[in-house]
Amino acid sequence: MTSTALPDAVKIGVVDDDLDVRNSFVELLTSKGWKVVAYERGCDFLQHVRQDAPHCVLLDLHLPDMSGLDVQAELAASGIDVPLIFVSGSVRPQERRRAIAQGAVAILAKPVDAHRLIELIRRTVSPPP
Questions:
Q1: Which CATH number characterizes residue 59's domain?
Q2: Is residue 6 situated within a structural domain?
Q3: Phi, psi of 51 (to 5 degrees)
Q4: What residues form DSSP beta bridges with 12?
Q5: What is the residue range of 104's domain?
């Protein structure tokens, strides 16, 4: 049996330029009782990440202002360690390798399976037993 207990006040960041996708993630994650902070652009997320630090981030790989990989690199360069789950409609093998090599938790294909995403987030933000 999988434990669903999570720390209080779990905050999930969502960075996706597609309004419908962003809203779907927000609706799904808030239905689980999590606080969700959503951004359309990577640069907007980076401007707020320090003062509104999430426990986990769903990050679109292909954003209009900067790629998800660029956001990942900026976080690392700034010393911000937050688990990243990439989501994308298409992923090239070199993007997958780079994301995972730089510490991404996973890369999920859109449309994302809701059950799989919820379980992945639970495992990511749950304290070790």
A1: 3.40.50.2300
A2: no
A3: -85, -15
A4: 36, 56
A5: 11-125
